[in-house]
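FIELD: query
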Amino acid sequence: MSAIVHHNLPAGYARLNLAQATQTAQESIQRLSSGYRVNHPGDGTAAYSMSQRLSSDVGIYEQARRNSETGMALTRAIESSNIQMLDVLDRMRELSVASATDTMNQGDRVQAQVEFGALQEELSRLANTVQINNVRGLATSGTLTFQTGIREGQHNRVVLTMSDMRPNQLSVDQGAIDILTQSNAQSGIDRIEAAMQTLIDYRTRVGSRYRELQVAFDVNVHQMENLGRTSGIIRDTDYAEEAGRMVQAQVRLKASASILTQANEMGRLALELLRR
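FIELD: result
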């Protein structure tokens, strides 16, 4: 065996293997501690780019899901108050029918009007209290757009056409009808029935938009699950595989360090020969 000092090839091989084992161990530690197999572009450019895009899409779908959920909350609130307003109008119609008959005297009509007026105030309160983030669902007209998808276009949004359901717009407020006289009570019956039909039509419209929002909500949830699963396949660490890889790297580290020590001893053989 040659004894040389300028080039210690065995030590070079040992250092190379030691560096590779160290790099592998460091990568395994990073992957096991972060939970991600792909942490930066160096771990795979295509995988990193795809995982970043998928993670971004998951966040966007999450926002679209929240938009759908907010829209569902508003439409539920509108529907709930709509039902209560119909109950109030139904009672007002009963009082109007009672006051429209000759068997009720004027004193009875005055007493009935007290309740009738209170019901009109309750209608106004119900119409004005439904709001989410300053959006008033029963006291304004116009359109309300919910962005329920992550793209542009009509298939990614739900539009609710709102109608003003306050008593003065339905012509059933205190300045429009009363039941103090028989003729007023008789004319009020038709107005109340017309107001009830308007509320029913609006409730039907709101209900259809609620169903659209619910479908959009479910679609967004499923998309988030699918994208999250795909992103996990691409990016997440397989702990069983990575733990085995780290153990292998640790064995190589110890072996390389031991061999490097022995290889460095070979250079000292030349000194021993000179001493002799």
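FIELD: remark
The chain is about 70% helix and 5% strand.
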